[in-house]
Write a structure and sequence with these properties.
- The complex is a heterotrimer of chains A (262), B (468) and C (218).
- Chain A has 262 residues and is of the alpha/beta class.
- Chain A has helices spanning 17-22, 24-36, 52-56, 60-74, 85-98, 106-114, 119-126, 147-153, 157-163, 187-190, 192-209, 219-231, 241-245; strands spanning 10-13, 40-42, 79-82, 116-118, 136-144, 167-171, 213-216, 237-240.
- Chain A folds into two domains: 10-126; 135-245, Rossmann fold (3-Layer(aba) Sandwich).
- With 468 residues, chain B is an alpha/beta fold.
- Helices cover 53% and strands 11% of the residues of chain B.
- In chain B, helix 3 (46-62) crosses helix 12 and helix 9 packs across helix 10.
- The longest helix of chain B has 24 residues, at 19-42.
- Chain B is globular and about 95 Å long.
- Chain B starts with 7 loop residues before the first helix and ends with a helix.
- Chain C is of the alpha/beta class and 218 residues long.
- The chains are: A alpha/beta (262), B alpha/beta (468), C alpha/beta (218).
- At the A-B interface, helix 1, helix 2, helix 3, helix 4 and helix 8 of A face helix 1, helix 15, helix 18, helix 19 and helix 20 of B.
- Strand 9 of chain B pairs antiparallel with strand 9 (185-189) of chain C, so a sheet runs across the interface.
- Chain B: Pfam families: Fer4_8, LUD_dom, LutB_C.
- Chain B: It comes from Aromatoleum buckelii.
């Protein structure tokens, strides 16, 4: 499943569940960005989910079963990169914790942890010198900091720096950009009223910026916010940041009607 | 208070629809968060202090028996008495015993979360005593017959209008509508109580083993009037609040005010050491400390030891978006917000508060502001793990997880189902979104579901690879 | 040490045992105890490069306290009289016995006892000032009853500039140096009493003094 052979590092793309099902364009955007940064990209077919739903529900056995599967699918790569702070934080932080008492799997979990990166931090922090953004986006965007990426992986400046290189894009910060949007995985369906209140606060802050586009690095949050924006007919397009950076944000945004031309 | 954490869902929905509460919460949230952020920006050493505070607390907890014994020794040497209470009932008995022995009629109280934890007020009132909360916030909610909704701002859920109503009902008219008038009225009413009090009860922010002192930190001065003017001063405190020396207490003092109210220091930091001395002109004749365990020593044993570092600043709840949405009463017991969602199940039982560890997005903002770096999200997840192990997790959820695991560990099947879902969902989508989805009301009641495009990424990727 | 001879003796032993069980160890041995007793805490203190008096004044005033400087101790009664007139207070004050020897104005009704419920003005002497936060430290005793610090609406505190120390820790050193040991109450006071319990609105004069005025001597 190799894309194009290059001399750069071999990267296994972690195709997150939500991306795979809801937004393939994010996957192709990630591949383009990685290849432009000199990596060869492969997408193992033996991957499914990182196991976070099990872990966060307290079912550690289930999480371990999924983690072993991910380790086996990806440990032969130079890097594992995924377009989600949430999934990648699970691999980086939670896998070693899950196998803390397992001398056989702990070293493998730790080894994978060390080479696993969220897409933007990989581009900016690991491949920084090799990255040039060649994209245009006509619009004013505001950026939501997803919690796992922000607090788990320290992703804050990288997306903004990368967006700064996009022609035509104006970034306008929202109030409380770092406050949770109310997604929280199963939280949003277990406690829908609280989640709605939280996403409404987020939506208000987005609308207050006057931006026509919302960007973020995690599809879970973006689907939640987009779902609310569309329900109240707010005229804000929603894209994963990778789509904009790759120049693939010319189609319909999340939850927007497909464009005829595509 | 009777625990009502099992009603979290209902109470949280009510809270979201309570306009007064939402007004009050909106106001509070930005005040606390902004002021704290300013303090942190003004103190370059803040992060270093957090790390030192975490390490110091860990050191104390590792040697808790030693420091408690040293503390007790020093209290006794200064003429005070130490009482030990294994649980809430024992603590109530001890305090009630002291109050009865001195024939207490009026008991004044400074703010003490431990006294809430042990249901002290009810016990004293049932025994015919007048109990007067003197912290303005506590006084307000006492008039409203409500529990605190925040550990440092107990009446944060009340608007000024509601306070005006409560004061008018309790003190008679004319109705006061301005904050200075309201504060003055409380000052006047409570003045008399301090001077009449037989027993004054306060909490203890820190207990100093070096000197046998208890430290309270307040802005109003009510705690000082409470403990100075009553004939007997009783300090209620958890066993984990001991620190080795005054210098060690200082580390926490520097973090506490900044984290709690966003001040460099609170107005009053008071170090109390024993009862009135022979030549003193004022101060209580007796000085008692009630050391309450109530589940704390058990917490020390395992994964939840980190929670005992808590210095009760409230920063976690001030920064919690769930607390910000529903306020403190939804949590159904004494301690709300992230720290309460850990403490409540540990003190009152995992099954008494199923929702609390679950009603969290694990966004981590609480941990990022905790002055003693308690990994609150990890502890909440660990509680979910215990619920799962002990079959407290609802059967349907466990079953769903079981099915998910079975499918997700079979990649071919998983991908086939994702492909099926991509087709089905895109088939029912209109204009890129799905407005109603059976069995997914939790999502679609308030949000559209962004529609898949019909093919999964892996499917498209494999097709593309075929072309190459 | 001996367990107290009351009913909580059992509880005490049970709690300490429960603590040790949780820590999975026996009571510490003599060597370990000695090491803990000899421990010297060294924590980071907020750094600053301000002169102590300047910092104390700036910080104290930032918390709604007021300050007047006088050259010598003899000038204190006149300064208090000026304050009294400015705030239209009666000629009556609770004055800490530490300041008994000063030449208080004729016609004043002065006492050195604890403050009563109607007390309007108290004058105290601070043990020291803490520059770090602009706080006063007062030690209770026959020369400085605690009620003086909390009951009156107006609290005037006399502080000598030489007694301004840098950090809290330096204040503790002052306490430890007292021959009589720790006072019953050590009050660290940073401005007037305040509350924000009604709608986060800061209101001065909650339960304690509405005004705290420092007379800085030297």
């Amino acid at each position: 499943m190799t894309s194009s052979p290059t001399a750069g590092p071999r990267v296994g793309l972690f195709a997150t569940c939500l991306m795979n099902l809801f937004r393939p364009n994010v996957g192709f955007s990630a591949v383009k960005l990685l290849e432009d940064a000199g990596c060869s990209v492969e997408v193992p077919a033996s991957q499914t989910c990182c196991g976070q739903p099990g872990y966060n529900s307290g079912d550690y056995d289930a999480a371990r079963a999924l983690a072993r599967q991910v380790i086996e699918a990806f440990e032969h790569f130079d890097y594992v990169v995924g377009p989600s702070g949430s999934c990648m934080a699970t691999i980086r932080h939670d896998y070693p914790a899950l196998f803390a008492d397992d001398p056989q799997w702990l070293p493998r979990a730790e080894a994978l942890s060390r080479k696993s990166f969220e897409l933007l931090s990989f581009l900016a922090d690991v491949r920084g010198a090799a990255v040039t953004v060649d994209a245009r986006y006509a619009g004013t965007a505001t950026y939501h900091d997803s919690c796992s990426g922000l607090r788990g992986l320290g992703i804050k400046g990288q997306p903004r720096a990368l967006l700064g290189e996009v022609d035509g894009l104006k970034l306008k910060e929202m109030e409380d950009a770092e406050v949770c949007c109310g997604f929280g995985g199963t939280f949003c369906v277990k406690y829908p009223e609280i989640s709605e209140k939280m996403v409404d606060d987020k939506v208000r802050n987005i609308l207050a910026t006057g931006a026509d586009t919302l960007l973020g690095g995690d599809l879970g949050c973006l689907m939640n916010i987009a779902g609310r924006l569309k329900r109240i007919h707010a005229p804000v397009k929603v894209f994963h940041i990778a789509e904009v950076l790759a120049g693939f944000a010319d189609g319909a945004g999340l939850a927007d009607a497909p464009k005829e031309s595509r | 208070m009777q625990i009502r954490s099992d009603e979290f869902k209902e109470r949280s929905v009510f809270a979201i629809h309570d306009a007064n509460l939402q007004t009050a919460l909106g106001r509070a949230r930005y005040g606390f968060v902004g002021k704290r952020a300013q303090q942190v920006a003004d103190l370059p050493e803040f992060e270093q202090l957090r790390e030192e505070a975490k390490n110091l607390k860990n050191h104390v907890l590792d040697n808790l028996d030693h420091y408690l014994a040293r503390y007790e020794q020093a209290v006794v040497a200064s003429g005070g008495q130490v009482h030990w209470a294994r649980d809430a009932e024992e603590a109530r008995k001890i305090i009630l015993g002291i109050c009865k022995r001195v024939g207490a009629k009026t008991v004044t109280k400074g703010k003490s979360m431990v006294s809430e934890e042990i249901d002290l007020n009810e016990a004293l009132i049932d025994n015919g005593m007048e109990v007067v909360e003197t912290d303005l916030g506590e006084y307000i909610i006492q008039l409203a017959h409500e529990p605190p909704s925040h550990i440092i701002a107990p009446a944060v859920h009340k608007t000024k209008d509601q306070v005006s109503d409560l004061f008018e009902a309790a003190h008679g008219g004319p109705r006061k509508t301005q904050v200075p008038e309201l504060v003055d009225e409380a000052r006047r009413v409570l003045r008399d109580k301090y001077f009449r009090a037989d027993v004054g009860i306060t909490g203890g922010n820190f207990l100093v083993a070096e000197t046998g002192s208890s430290i309270i930190v307040t802005n109003e001065g009510n705690g000082d009037l409470t403990q100075t003017l009553a004939k007997v001063h009783i300090v209620t405190s958890g066993i984990e609040r001991v620190v080795p020396t005054l210098d060690d207490a200082t580390l926490f003092l520097r973090l506490l005010a900044r984290s709690a109210t966003g001040q460099e220091t609170e107005t009053y930091t008071t170090i109390s050491t024993g009862p009135r001395r022979a030549d003193d002109l004022d101060g209580p004749e007796e000085y008692h400390v009630v050391l309450v365990d109530n589940g704390r020593s058990k917490m020390l044993a395992g994964r939840f030891r980190d929670m005992l570092r808590c210095i009760r600043c409230g920063a976690c709840m001030n920064h919690c978006p769930v607390y910000g949405a529903v306020g403190g009463h939804a949590y159904g017991w004494v301690y709300p917000g992230p720290m309460g969602s850990v403490l409540t199940p540990l003190i009152k039982g995992l099954d008494a508060a199923y929702d609390l560890p679950n009603a969290c997005t694990l966004n981590g903002r609480c941990q990022s502001v905790c002055p003693v770096k308690i990994p609150l999200p990890e502890l909440l997840r660990e509680l979910r793990h215990l619920q799962h192990q002990q079959n407290i997790t609802p059967v349907m959820q466990k079953r769903a997880l079981g099915i998910w695991r079975w499918v997700a560990t079979r990649p071919k099947l998983y991908h086939a189902l994702e492909q099926l879902a991509a087709r089905a969902l895109s088939g029912i989508a209109r204009r890129g979104r799905i407005r109603r989805l059976p069995l997914a009301g939790g999502w679609t009641d308030s949000r559209d579901l962004p529609a898949p495009t019909g093919r999964t990424f892996l499917e498209l990727w494999q097709g593309k690879r075929g072309q190459r | 040490m001996n367990a107290p001879a009351n009913a909580s003796g059992n509880a005490r032993d049970a709690i300490l045992k429960s603590v040790r069980d949780a820590l999975r160890r026996d009571p510490l041995d003599a060597t370990q105890v000695a090491a803990l007793d000899a421990r010297v805490p060294r924590h980071t203190r907020p750094a600053h490069d301000e002169d102590l008096v300047t910092r104390f004044m700036r910080k104290f005033e930032s918390r709604a306290g007021t300050i007047e400087r006088v050259a010598s101790r003899d000038a204190v009664p006149a300064a208090v009289e000026a304050y009294r007139l400015a705030h239209r207070l009666p000629q009556r004050a609770a004055v800490g016995a530490a300041l008994k020897d000063l030449a208080w104005p004729d016609g004043w009704l002065i006492h050195h006892e604890a403050a009563g419920i109607t007390e309007a003005l108290a004058v105290s002497r601070a043990l020291c000032g803490i520059a770090e936060t602009g706080s006063l430290m007062l030690a209770s005793g026959p020369h400085s009853p605690t009620t003086h610090n909390f009951v009156p609406d107006d609290h005037v505190v006399v502080l000598e500039t030489a007694r301004i120390v840098d950090h809290f820790e330096d204040g503790w050193t002052e306490l430890r140096a007292r021959p009589e040991g720790m006072p019953r109450a050590t009050n660290i006071i940073s401005g007037p009493s305040r509350t924000a319990d009604v709608e986060q609105t800061i209101q001065l004069g909650a339960h304690g003094p509405r005004r705290v005025h420092v007379i800085l001597v030297g």
